[in-house]
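User: Could you walk me through two proteins back to back? I'd like the raw sequence and the structure tokens for each, with a short line separating them so I can tell where one ends and the next begins.

Assistant: Of course. Protein one, sequence then structure:
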Amino acid sequence: MSRLSNFIKLPAEEKILSIEAFFFIVAVRLALWLIPFRLFQKFAVENLSGRARQDETDWAKIKKIARLVGRVNGLLPFTTCLTQALAALLMIKLSGQESELKIGVAKSGGVKFEAHAWLEKNGRILLGRVPEHERYVTLNFYPK
């Protein structure tokens, strides 16, 4: 009940963004299950590349989207850091702003590889910061 009461207390803009975040996260999760990442990446880059048009960065809007996507993502099962980062990337792009998806790998315990996705803007992590973040080596395959 407290989640519902917290949602009701949100300002109208944050309620709308939270609902949008829910649908974007679900859509991205389904897309990643159904189509290869490269195809999704091509769609996101080519079809939305002209959407970010604002010359000045609206940090308040970007941080609000990242915060709400992170909050909603925590309520949904079967989501990953990649799902969360891609949903926020799309929402930020559709709002007329830019951000950058980062995917990194690190060795865990000297044997096993770990992967992590996060979102950045001008070198600042917007979404997906984890402890010991600097141990991840960023892969350079995602075009701008």
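----
Protein two, same layout:
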Amino acid sequence: YFSGFPLWLNIQVTKWQLDDANKELIAPYGESVYQSSLSLEDTDGNVVDLSTFGGKPLFINFWQSWCVPCLAEFESLSDLQNQMPNVEFIFITTEERAVFNQFVNKAGHELSFYRLLSKVPPPLQYKVVPTSLLLNEDGGVVYRHYGAANWVSQSSILTLEKALYE
């Protein structure tokens, strides 16, 4: 009866500890990431390439279903997505199809989840989850954040907007 309660409680406690995401502005990385080959599989099993998102800003979040900080930030990322309608959001995991499908079916989030099917190009490489990146419309990485964050704080939103538009 209480099998999911410890995880839920851990997620709730982690949410309270999230800091603002306002420290990782970077100069745009050389060539466009949209020129890189990066294959993704959506929740319906369709394979898409990163170039599909070219021409518009893109927020990428690398996550895993076992990662409590990843799960804790999904709600604020969903809210951020609503507050930044001109930015595309994708959520990428490396998990096996069965684990991915089980998570997505239970998640209850209206997020664009994908499974990674190829190697990550150098500008998008990460060492920890969650890792979030913001690409400008040209495919340059303009923001990187390692770890979970409170994405809907005023300072977090201002940081992202500054990265995109200044």
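The helical segments are 5-16, 68-83, 97-107, 154-165.

Let me know if you want the two compared in more detail.
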